[in-house]
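Postdoc handover notes: sequence design on the structure in folder B. Input tokens:
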């Protein structure tokens, strides 16, 4: 009997195909479902159009002007990470609410990092008995069967994996 099931979602619709199967997996049990969302660390910050500060317009030496719009940063790296983390947590809570409405005990966890490695690391803890996830069906035979992240998790052997 699996008492702690880890469900992995990436914020897109296809991985959510595993959610309807949870009803059948945990029906009549006191299983706890943990939904894990791993988001990549943002590499670049968003940019927008605007006027350059005077120090940038003149190379930082003194006042100067630039004709036309220039690109400027809209958020710092820390702000971008915070935004990605907030989006992931909001998404998780939305999915958890619908599962809790069905009577399931649900926890949420968000991580930043490489998806396959982060899932494997989290699944290696004693708070996971089984991993439930869906595949994307990307190109290439291996990816078509398991998906790159799902295939890596499956091959890791860290815990039993239920694939949809």
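Designed sequence:
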């Amino acid at each position: 009997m699996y008492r702690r099931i880890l469900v992995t979602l990436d914020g897109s619709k296809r991985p959510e195909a595993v959610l309807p199967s949870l009803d059948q997996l945990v029906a009549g049990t006191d299983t706890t479902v943990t939904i894990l969302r791993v988001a990549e660390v943002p590499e670049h910050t968003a940019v927008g159009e605007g006027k350059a500060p005077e120090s940038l317009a003149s190379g930082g030496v003194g006042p100067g002007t630039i004709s036309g719009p220039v690109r400027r940063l809209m958020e710092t790296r820390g702000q971008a990470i915070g935004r990605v983390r907030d989006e992931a947590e909001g998404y998780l809570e939305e999915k958890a609410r619908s599962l809790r409405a069905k009577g399931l005990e649900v926890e949420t966890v968000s991580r930043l990092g490489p998806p396959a490695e982060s899932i494997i690391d989290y699944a290696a803890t004693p708070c996971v008995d089984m991993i439930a996830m869906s595949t994307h069906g990307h190109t290439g035979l291996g990816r078509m069967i398991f998906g790159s992240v799902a295939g890596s998790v499956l091959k890791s052997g860290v815990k039993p994996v239920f694939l949809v």
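Context for whoever picks this up: Residues 49-62 have pLDDT under 50 and may be disordered. Don't rerun without checking with the PI first.
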